[in-house]
Amino acid sequence: MKDQPIKNVNCDHCGDKCGTGSVFEDSLNFCCSGCKTVYEILADNDLCDYYADGSTPGTSMRSKTYYDKFTVLDDPEIRSKFILFEEGNLVSVKLKLPQIHCSSCIWLLENLQRLNEGVSSSEVNFQKKQLLVNINKSKIDIKELFILLTQIGYEPLINIQETDHSNTSLNITLLLKIGVAAFCFGNIMLYSFPEYLGLDSKEFARFFAYLSLLFSIPLLFYSGFEYLQNAYRGIKMRYVNMDIPIALGMITLFARSSYEIISETGGGYLDSLSGLIFFLLIGKWFQSRTYKTLSFERNYKSYFPLSTTRLENGKRVTVKLDDLKIGDEIIIRNHELIPADGLIKSGEAFLDYSFVTGESELIHKTEKAVVYAGGKQEGSELAILLTHKPDNSYLTQLWNQEAFAKKEDQQINKLADQVSKYFTYFILTITALTAIVWFFLNPALIWTSVTAVLIVACPCALALSIPFTLGNAIRFLGRKGIYLKNTEVIEELAKIDTIVFDKTGTLTTTKSTSISFNNELITEQKELIKSLTTNSNHPLSRSITQFLDKIKTHEVKSFKEITSKGIQGVVNNIEVKIGNEAFLGVAFNKNITTVGVLIDQQYIGCFEFIPLLRKGVPDLISKLDALQIKMSLVSGDNDSMDAFLAEKLKLTDRKFNCSPLDKLNYIKELQEAGIVAMIGDGLNDAGALKQSNIGIAISDDVNYFVPACDIILDSDAISDVHGLLLYSKKCMHIIYASFTLSFIYNIVGLSFAVTGTLSPVIAAILMPISSISVVAFASLTSKYYYHKLIKH
Amino acid sequence: MSIIFLLALISLAIAIFFLGAFLWAVKTGQYEDDYTPSVRMLFDDSPKRNQNSDNKIDNLKSKK
After folding, report:
1. Higher pLDDT residue, A627 or A298?
2. What pTM was computed for the model?
3. Cα–chain-centroid distance for residue B16?
4. A278-287 pLDDT per residue, tens
């Protein structure tokens, strides 16, 4: 150990614990020279306000080789993905920085020009976690910009598969439509007031009526065009949707009003038409406010690096993944992902496949062994001879399964369409009956009463109840860390009767295992153990080293590491052996991972590595059990934890050693009996998540790795799954109640309409009242149940 | 009473002006991020911006 005393302090830059290799300067403590460098950059440029500004300091800096991955930016095709426009030396770059999380982030990132003179300006979009930077190409190139950002703790996402341009343009069109509708609605209402209050002057009446008619044209054919379009599409496909009665109502309103105004027989119902379209659009906007910044549609490409290092005639060249060929030799460094199946040419592999298979223990492979894509190397450098291309590997073949070809928009708005089907037939029947009755009573009134029926029956309130209930629900759930892909997810959630859990990373946490020693250890023994483990790179040794924090180490003589057995050495003339049963010749293994310690031929005990169950998981399982929901566990891991899980959780159906494809098929099997939700986290669950009716992905950081799914669940929110199920059921009840409410309004309106006494004033009053009361009911009740069921 | 025609048209003109302002605001992306500006305006000493290059960028953007 170095003579420098280790203080129990946190790094003043990144907040990490200062351990070995700490640097002290300016009476400040840094955990690594990287953090010191960032501090110096900030200090030199007078940006130290950064540390005063927020409670969350920067992240630690990586080793030099870490930046090698940015060499992929030398490829113009990849570079162009980030460039908005380029002219002369000026380049405008758009980057996604998932690390943006607080106001000091905005402050630091918008002061980039003070860190590097090549940056002329930068602008943060906080909600999209985007940074727009304008740089001077002659002073800083894009690669340097990436490195600069990574150095200050904001590493831009390189493998952005998804572009969010379509979403934003969709939103903009909707906003424009709402703006036009609001303008027309407001003015038409103003022009209608004189008539409500009894206007005598013919001249004014005609003037206002024509103005209203003028405004109703953009209103109907711009703002409301989508409804007409959808209805037309529905009729063409012989499929009754909610838009048909709406469009019917709109056209009738417009046609009758135009006729009345032009023939000067009345004022028309343009006020109702404008209100209808305006409210509908507001509902649509409310429903569309989902989590656009989160990506629910990722495949393996989002996880893989964009580039890798290839050996070409002894030289290392960074190449794009697409350019890899069979027979290429590639270099995998520590913590890098193997992009394609291959054979180890040189080096020793300790592969972490937890991401792919759920298996949490490292797999050790030596030369000439086969390695599969998706494994992460935990150790020294590795040379691999490729036997497959990246898109043809064992793992990536999963994406060729039919589940991934499933069309998304098949089941959209099921409930609304079912209800509107009956509703439409009901309305058409009433209309026909009205026409027949008036034909016998007074044929002159057929036209008036039939149009009145169609106007009143327009299911505005009906159409609003779903977006407002579910839109509200989505927003509330987001506050708790439950992010839904869209509102249809709630409809499906309410029907769930089976839940399948993944083990690693879902029921248990991914990283932290709790380490304990099953015996008393005196400081001297701790020193002996740590002296040995610091010399080994094996992950278990490293965990033990971390566990024995603040313990001195001594020099080790005749150190030996025997792969997949253990380590031994002589410290202070005492022989120490650490390893498994076979290595030590002592029996201690239980159902969990253990490492025994032998000091001076004496067995003193073993370290136990117990995976931690996520907080609230046992409670959640028993609550779901009480709801009579069938539950299963499918794990890619071996069954060494089976006894532990059986003891802690009320899960009777447990499956182990499942491949990603097994998981997918198991879900398919369960779907024959019910509606299945899958809760998982890694790539190994991607197939199951996609196949299930509702795929729920758990993530410690929702902005990072999440496979394609319907719900992204913040890892802290897993205990809320029970509340989520109850809440989704309640939401459906709220919608049914709103339907009933709006139906009552329709019946009242119809009673005026069929008798031919619907005046514009009654229509203008009834329409907004029904809409507003339904909206208020839906919003208030959905809020009430959220507080009751989820927010405790 | 004919003054009412004039008043109605004037009010209409004002309303159209505001509609135009709204459409402009949407199209220039002012609704894309409604959080960051609220934080940005609270930063104490705003950094010295390179006025020339900023203007240049704005010109380029309008050309696009």
Report:
1. A627
2. 0.74
3. 15
4. 989 988 888 7
Mutation for B interface: A113, A131, A177, most B CBs within 10 A:
A113
Q: DSSP strand E in A77-152: where? A: 83-87, 90-96, 119-125, 130-136
Q: Which CATH architecture fits A71-158?
A: 2-Layer Sandwich (3.30)
Distance from CA of A386 to the nearest CA of B (A): 45
- List C-alpha distances in Å: A361 to A505, A532, A609, A751: 13, 21, 11, 72
> Chain B: residue nearest A91 by CA?
B57
Q: From B47, which residue of chain A is nearest by alpha-carbon distance?
A: A111
CB–CB of B64 and A183 under 8 A? no
Three-class DSSP labels, A560-575: EEECCCEEEEEECCEE
Better-scored residue on pLDDT, A136 or A549: A136
B5: chain A residues, CB-CB within 8 Å: 207
Provide the 10 A C-beta neighbour count for residue A715. 18
Q: Exposed/middle/buried for A342, CB within 10 Å: 0-12, 13-18, 19+? A: buried
For residue B43, the distance in angstroms to the closest alpha carbon of chain A comes to 7
Q: From B24, which residue of chain A is nearest by alpha-carbon distance? A: A176
Q: Which of A90, A113, A175 sits opposite B47 (nearest CB)?
A: A113
CATH level 2 (architecture), domain A474-510+614-726: 3-Layer(aba) Sandwich (3.40)
d(CA A185, CA A174): 16
- The complex's ipTM? 0.74
Q: Which residues of A fall within a CB distance of 8 Å from B32? A: 125, 128, 168
Domain spans, chain B: 1-38
For domain A302-399, the question of CATH label 2.70.150.10 is answered with: yes
Inter-chain touch A183–B19, beta carbons under 8 Å: yes
With an 8 Å Cβ cutoff, is A747 touching chain B? no
Measured between beta carbons, the chain B residues lying within 8 angstroms of A207 are 5, 8
Q: Indicate if the pLDDT at residue A34 is higher than 50.
A: yes
Asked if A127's CB is within 8 angstroms of B35's CB, the reply is: yes
pLDDT digits (tens, 9 = 90+) for A707-729: 778 888 888 888 889 999 999 99
Domain boundaries, chain A: 1-61, 71-158, 166-286, 302-399, 474-510+614-726
d(CA A175, CA A178): 5
Say how far residue A236 (Cα) sits from the centre of its chain: 36
Cβ within 8 Å of residue A541, ≥6 positions away: A532, A533, A534, A567, A578
Structure tokens at A399: 């994406």
Nearest CA in chain A to B34: A127
- Chain A (25-54) residues lying within 8 Å, Cβ to Cβ, of chain B: 49
Quick check: helix, strand or coil at residue A327? coil
**pLDDT of A361:** 66
Q: Do B15 and A183 touch (CB under 8 A)?
A: yes
Query: What's the rounded Cα separation, in Å, for the pair A400 and A409?
Result: 20
Q: Assess B46–A contact: CB distance below 8 Å, yes or no.
A: no
Task: Specify the DSSP class assigned to residue A6.
Answer: P
Contact assessment for residue A540 and residue A606, using Cβ atoms and an 8 Å cutoff:
no
Q: Is B39 on the interface with A (CB under 8 A)?
A: yes
Confidence band for B58, pLDDT divided at 50, 70 and 90: low
Two tokens, residue A203: 């001249």
Q: Do B12 and A211 touch (CB under 8 A)?
A: yes
Contacts of B1 in chain A (CB under 8 A): 201, 204
Spatial CB neighbours of A543, under 8 Å, sequence gap ≥ 6:
A513, A515, A609
Evaluate the CA torsion angle A547, A550, A551, A553 in order and state its sign. Answer: positive
Inform me whether the C-beta atom of residue B3 falls under 8 Å from chain A C-beta atoms. Answer: no
Phi, psi of A776 (to 5 degrees): -65, -45
